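Reply to dn_fold:

You asked what the input looked like. This is it:
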Amino acid sequence: MSMFGDGLDQAVQKAFTRPIPKSAGAQMRYLVKQYKGTKAVAQMLRVSQRTVERYVKDQFKKPRPDLAARIEREVKARWQPQIRAKAREQAASTGGIVIDTRARLGYTAPIGSTDQDRIRHLTVALPPQYAARLFDAQEQGATDQQLREIAAEALKEVYFQDGGRRAGSLEEVRFTDIEHLEFDL
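and this is what came back:
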């Protein structure tokens, strides 16, 4: 999975007002309700329709680990869509997003400056327009590299250039070797 896409999803999931269903049967019933039938859920999870029906009736209680992970991922992806949309809208319009990362950051600048890449641990509040760009790109299926470029541009403006108050001749920020990445709304 993508590091940036998963990080954005986890940030939005923190806004949930109710926890996702715990048991496999409850999760499966939720998916059947969302997909309007057991056949579609079975195809999506790559199991038989009869297996889905057994989970719905609580005849099967404990799925194997790979199936449990797929079920939970699919439930989280569909859980509380209105809360998810509201959290994204708020971050994109007024709140912004906080990025906490430990990665190798460097930049391209005119000759004579120290542009050596180095590992930095940053916790930076990004303005709403960058939150909007990140969420829009994610919705349109952007790759991890494209999301990384948007985040690098945001770090360039907010961290390195301090909103235009310094490093005006900075050309490009390199954001590589990511050890830790977390977003928060």
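The chain has eight helices and three strands.
Hope that clears it up.
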